[in-house]
Design a protein that fits this description.
14 helices, single chain, 6 strands, six-stranded parallel β-sheet, 306 residues, alpha/beta
Length: 306
């Protein structure tokens, strides 16, 4: 059964959504569930701004840092992990508070996730090998020939999604867009859910991002990059492409100064936040309430019925 009374908090990176989730947990006694695709990895605590020790003590947290970075995690796998939390009783007796910046996770929560075809290992391995050998842009050209509409919707550098589209097409004979158009079963009850999205001035958000990156360096972000690189993982894996890993990797290789790497991470994070804001603006419906960053707590209590 879909979860009733859930609270969904979406927002761009550094927009204050984690602090908002803690306040909701304080008011409701709820449990916080990660809805960010990068905060699932166990090595990148600082670099992905996972909740700190004090935050973890303040409220129950789930699906943070529970995966090795060698895993290519999908939205489908995340929904199955949420279902396991529900079935295991981890969310029983308290509202679930989903917080993050991954739009597809919220779409799956409210609208369900379409059933996807089983992909034979041989087909999956074949396209992953070709991605490594030929690169994302070459695979994007192949996809443009075989499934032009899907190719138009994907960036030519998004190797993981391009390979996924090609493997689904080969295994099923149908476009991945056809599969995605099918209706799924919502994980939360939309009628009883409270949906919030953090609203923040763009200039303030940029200042927060710049300050956060500088703080990350002080807290050990470069050492985290050193640790994940030492694992010898495929550079095409999502965790290896997390913002900061390539940029601080250049610094560790001696091809850039630390100050240059910091500037690159700040710029990449600002661009990522811009894409998030665009997605939330275009994809989130009227059910979502825009809550100003650092707004009056009484307004939050009213929304929660407290």
């Amino acid at each position: 059964m879909p979860l009733k009374g859930a609270v969904l908090i979406a927002g761009a990176t550094a927009s204050g959504k984690s602090a908002l989730a803690l306040e909701v947990a304080r008011l409701t006694g709820g449990a916080i569930v990660n809805a960010d695709s990068m905060q699932v990895y166990d090595v990148l605590r600082v670099l992905t701004a996972r909740p700190g020790i004090e935050d973890l003590r303040a409220a129950p947290h789930h699906l943070y840092g529970h995966l090795h970075p060698s895993v290519a995690y999908s939205t489908g796998e995340w929904t199955r992990d949420v279902e396991k939390l529900t079935a295991g009783g981890d969310l029983e007796g308290r509202p679930a508070i989903f917080v993050g910046g991954t739009g597809l996770y919220f779409r799956a929560l409210l609208g369900g996730l379409a059933e996807m075809p089983d992909i034979p290992a041989a087909i999956r391995d074949s396209w992953r090998d070709r991605l490594l050998r030929d690169g994302a842009e070459r695979l994007h050209s192949i996809l443009a020939e075989r499934d032009p509409e899907t190719a138009l919707a994907l960036r030519a550098t998004d190797g993981q999604r391009i390979a996924r589209a090609l493997e689904v097409l080969e295994a099923s004979g149908r476009s991945i867009r056809d599969w995605q158009a099918q209706l799924g079963v919502p994980l939360v009850d939309p009628a009883t859910a409270t949906c919030l999205v953090t609203d923040i001035d763009r200039a303030l958000l940029h200042r927060r991002i710049d300050a956060r990156v500088e703080r990350m360096v002080e807290e050990g972000a470069v050492e985290e990059v050193r640790q994940i690189r030492a694992l010898g993982l495929d550079p095409a894996l999502p965790a290896m492409k997390a913002i900061g890993v390539p940029e601080f990797g250049e610094y560790l290789d001696g091809t850039s100064e630390l100050s240059e790497a910091v500037s690159k991470v700040q710029a990449a994070t600002r661009q990522y936040a811009k894409r998030q804001l665009t997605w939330f603006r275009n994809q989130l419906g009227a059910q979502w309430v825009r809550l100003p960053a650092g707004g009056d707590a009484s307004g939050l209590r009213h929304l929660l019925g407290k």
